[in-house]
Every structure is written in structure tokens, then in C-alpha cells.
Amino acid sequence: MDILLQQILNGLSIASVITLIAVGVTLIFGLTGIINFAHGEFLMVGSIVTWLAVSNGIAFPLALILGVLAVALMGFVLERAIFRFTLERPTNGFIVSLGLIVVLQHVVILFWNANQKSIPRPLTTVWEIGGVRIASVRVMVILMTIAVVAMTYVMITRSRYGRALRASVEDRDTAALMGIPVRRYITGVFVLGSALAGLGGGLLIALFPITPFTGGTMVMKGFAVALIGGLGNLSGAVAAGLILGIVEGLSAGYGFSEWTDAYSFGLMILVLLFRPHGLFGGTSGPKMA
Amino acid sequence: MALCLGASGLPALAQDAGNTIKIGVVAAESGAFVSAGHTLPAGVGLAVKQINDAGGINVGGKNYKLEMVKRDDRTDIATAIAATQELVRDERVAAIFGSESHDFTLAMAKITQPAKVMHFAGNSTLGKVLTPEAVKGGGENHYLFQSEPQEFQRSGSTARGVLSLLEPLLGAKPKKSVVIAGNDATGQFLSSFYITALKAEGQDVPDIIFYPPETTDFSPFLTKAKSYDPDIIHFWYNGDSTLTALPQALELGAAKSYFMFGVDPGIWKERGLTADVPVAMSCVPICWGASSNPGSKPYFDAYFAAGAPHGVTSSVSLLYHDYVHFLAKAWEKAGSFDPDKTVDALMSMKYSGVVSDTLAFNETHQVTHATEVCAAAPGGDITCSMQQPPEKAPQ
Fold first, then answer.
1. Where in chain B do CATH 3.40.50.2300 domains reside?
2. Could A11 and B210 be called an inter-chain contact, meaning their C-beta atoms sit closer than 8 Å?
3. Of the four, A222, B29, B93, B198, which is 20 to 30 A from B328 by CA?
4. Does domain A2-274 have CATH number 2.60.450?
């Protein structure tokens, strides 16, 4: 029983980081139509900035904030300089994002080499309850994810800004005629999604060492979660993140461990076959007249 | 001209260009294998510099300098093949070092061997192509040399080192081992040798747990390993993955001790890693952070001073560095760059390198030497040893 509980707890912490990516992916695609496959590299850059800051003596909480701000700024620049010009042709944006993967990886390698980067654990306490070991750093990651996702959810569903955003998704042109600055909102969503990736990166390096190639794996799972939950559906991404985390934990422990990723993506394929808009329903991106 | 040379089967050597002999390196300086890949040009480049600084090599009464020509294979086999073709046909290198990947080496050898270019590869698994028939004069791999011990030797030497160092730290002979390995071609293939080696040393190995290659969260796999209550969890073979997994294993209290293949004690120290249980580490072939080998410190001082980063797999450079020196001595002994005479010279020599005082190739062009294992006690003290590998592969 303690092994089963341990596996469920294991699944929750990595599910948190994947959920942060998935929320970013689902927001950016669902609200702007941009399919950014370089989102994983945004996460990696968040990890690198956090690592650089901690390596230079900055405390982890401040380093984490710096990581978030740096990736948000990067998202702003890239949206204004590149993605903005691909909004009418999402395929172009998709191809651009593939190119960005290589560029971002190799810029990081150029300046900081390809070796693994890690930071000392910001929290080192481990509690043992009934044979189950609970690492405080994992609890921190889970709690921060819950808080940030809850704030994002409230902002999107309850605030005026969120209502305007959702109106833009329904019909960009009509929203613009109603006085909503659609282009500025798109930039805002892209920056918010990027910031979430930066946060995911900062939290990831608190848990595990990273390399310039870490983003690729994480973004695949982030997209899988976003698709399982329904693209554009925030609560769907959270629920799917939990499902995927627990499926991975249990499959590694009780199934063929080497097939862990196959279970996750197999689940995604099944969901998309039987519920093309995801378990909780999603959008097909913003509608343009 | 190059085509004519290739067609006639004559070696396309670079000494035609003057007093400089070109040595090619094909390695992953970008892409997934970059961690090990960048150590190849660093190790070869250091050896070339040392030889040139000492006046070059004297062959047939004439002095020659060496020049390294490196190509990034971008961890892509097609790029490695194209780079090898360019080095052989256009750059007319006298020898090629690389690649770090078994599969790439096999493809590269299809180009280097017909062109009679000396080829050194630090792979432990070339046995199937380095048969007595293939390496004899006129054989299809006569000019191919394996500069890493055979896998059963590396695994055997490593298993002996791990068990001998952990036993006193555990206070009892370890009996049960679980192996955790990456589920890729290399992990599957190499772990079979290591499990055989552990069983040959009397270990009960109830399970080998494979993880997907890009795994960062090892806790589900470690929790499964913990359910066996093992004395040792062996992380085999990817050093970067191992460093990711160990802190998670310590948090979970998954075993009484651990072994991390391919992690240098230098990384352990630099990262300030600690453990409340014994942790063994191994290097391919000797370590830079702590070592029982007196040649380690001067070599790695020079290696890092030349600008190479402190890496998990910096030691891999030694699978190439020593063999540049060895080859240079062989050319001097042969008094010629003729590849057949060079092979004869290599096979008749022993070379005193950093890794071993008695480096020599056996009848199938493979070297034999020990692999270094170090162990960190819970207090932080690190001890190292090099256990000789088994002479024959255990069944």
C-alpha cells in the first residue's frame, strides 16, 4: 500500500510542471491560435536563468522570479518580432516555432555549454508518513502550481480582461469593433503563457537537473495534456495533467516501466479518437471572419 | 585525383601537402551526444599539441607536425558519413578518431577501411566486426582499432570495483542488486553485460528496470526498485540521467547504497553532492575528480587548462588521447606512414599511456585495461580502485 501511495504522490509533482506547460500551451493556442512547439525551450530558458541567478548567489525565490520575468520578456519580444506576423497563417507560426527550438538550444549551448545544470535543492526536508516519503520540495512545486493555475483561472474566467479575451476567441473582428485591443491582448496571452513556462522551468530545476534539450520532452507531454484536456480549456488541462501524472506513476511502478511514455501518448491518441475536442471539450483556436 | 586514389585503393595521405600530417576527428559537438562528443576533439587536440610542442614526429628521418581537422557530426549518422567522406577524400587525413557512437563508427568504417585510413574508435562493442578474419592483412577492417576494452571486460572490471569498494562501507557483503537502465539500444545492450558480470560476482539481480531515455522524474522507477529492498541500485549507463536520478533515490531511501556509472567524482565534488549512504561512481576509463591512477592529475590538469569544460564524461577523452600518441610512436617505429606498416608497428608495440603502462592491441585490434571505480563514504571521503577485468566473458 505504501508503494502505491508513493507512486501516486510521485505522479503529482511532475504532473505539476507538465500542467504549467499545458496551461501555457492551451492558453496560447486556444486564445491566439499560435502553435508554439518551442514552448519547451521557453521552459528550458526559465531553468537556465534560474540556474544562472542561483549560481551567482541569488536566493531561489528571487531567482525564480527572475526566470519568470526573463521568459516573459523573451515571449514579448518573440511575439512582437516573429509570431505576430504569422497570426493569419498558423502553419508559418508552427514552422517558425520548430526553428526556434534549434536556435534557443544552440544559443544556450554556445554560452553555457551542453552539460547538465543543477541547483542545490531549495528545500531539503523529507517527511516519512506510514512508509511514504514526502519531499518538501515536491510539495512546494505542487502548491505553487495550484496557486498560479488558480489565479490564472480566476483571471481568465472572472475578470474583465478574461471576458474580453474570450470574446476575442469567439470573433476577433467583432471584438475589435467593440473596442477590444485584440492584438495587444494576443501579446498579453503570449507573455502570460511564456511566463508560466518560465515558472515551470524554475520549478523543474528545483526538482531535477536540466540540459539544453530538456524542453523537447516536456513540451511533448505538455501538448499531450493540453490535447487530452481539450485545447483552450484551462480546467481540462489541469485535470488531464493530474491524470497523466498518475498514469505515468502507476505504469512505471506496475506496468512495463520502459513504456511509460507510450502509455501517456497512447491515452492521448485514444482520447482524440473518441473525443476529438478532448475529455473536457476545447476550442479549435480563435475564429477569424 | 581523390577519386583516382580511392579507385586504386591507395591511401590518400596528407603528407603530400608538406610536413604536416592531418588527423581527422568526427564527433558530436552538438545534438544529443554532445556531452561525450566534445571530449573527442579535446583529447585528440591535446595530444596533437603535446606532440607538436615536443617537436613533432620523426618518420623516415624527416620531422612532421600533426594537424587536427575536426568535424561535428551533430549526432546524426548521415552527417558523420558525409564528414568522414570529406576528411578521407578532400582533407586526405592519415587517421580518423571517432565516433563516440558504435553505429556511427560502423558506418564510418565503410569509408575509412577501403581507403586504408587508420581508424580508432572508443566503442566497447566492435567485437562483431573486429574478427580475426576481418582484421588480418587484406581483411575488411584491417585498419580499424577499438580503443576501449570489450564490454564484458569493462562491465566485469566495473562490477568488481563497485562490490569491493561498497562492501566495507556497508559493513557486510552486498547480496541483492537492482539495475536501472535507459531503454535505448545502448542501454539494453550494455546492461545485459553488466547484469551477467554482477551475477558472476555472486549478486542476486531480481529486476532490471528500464526507463524512457529522456526521463527526468525517476521517482516511479525508484519506487519500484525500492520494493525489492536492494543492497545496491546500479544506475547504468547514462551519467547525466544518473545525476538526475540519485537525489531522487536518496529522498525516497530506495536502497542501502548506489552505483552511478559514468559519473566522475569531480562532478560529485563540484556539485556539492552528499549522501547518507555509500555511493560508488565509475569513469570511462579513469577519473579526474579523484583517482588511484598517478597519471590522472597531470593529464586532466593539462586537459582542463586547454579549455575543456569539467564534464561528467571528460574521462572519455582518454579513449582517444593516448591513441594519438600510440599512433605517432607507431609511425616513428614503422618509419613510414604506409598504413600496412603502421598496423604492423601498432601490433608489435606496447605504449605507456595515461590509462595504462601497457596499452597494447590484441589479435583482433582491441585493447584491455581496467575501469576505475570510486566510492564516496557518507562522511564524504572518496576512495578509488581499478580492478582488473576478467580474461574471458562470463556465461
1. 2-149+295-348, 151-293+371-387
2. no
3. B29
4. no
Whether B35 sits inside 8 A of A115 (CB atoms) is yes
Q: Mark yes or no for CB contact A207/B252 under 8 Å.
A: no
Asked if the C-beta of A118 comes within 8 angstroms of chain B's C-beta atoms, the answer is yes
Q: How far is CA A258 from CA B230, B285, B289, in A?
A: 20, 29, 33
Beta carbons of A10 and B240 less than 8 Å apart: no
Interchain contact B212–A (C-beta under 8 A)? yes
Fold of B2-149+295-348: Rossmann fold (3.40.50)
In sequence order, what E strands does chain B have? 20-27, 57-59, 62-72, 95-97, 118-121, 144-146, 177-182, 208-211, 232-236, 257-260, 279-282, 371-376, 382-387
**In chain A, where are the structural domains located?**
2-274
CATH of B151-293+371-387, one of 3.40.50.2300, 2.30.30.140, 3.30.70.1350, 3.30.420.40: 3.40.50.2300
pTM over 0.90: no
| Segment B4-30, tens digit of pLDDT | 444 444 444 545 457 999 999 999 988
Put simply, the answer to whether B220 touches A210 (Cβ < 8 Å) is no
Inter-helix orientation angle A182-207/A136-158, to 10°? 170
pLDDT digits (tens, 9 = 90+) for A182-219: 888 889 889 999 999 999 999 999 988 888 988 887 88
Give yes or no for A211 touching B (CB within 8 A).
yes
Q: Which residue has the cell 576505475?
A: B372
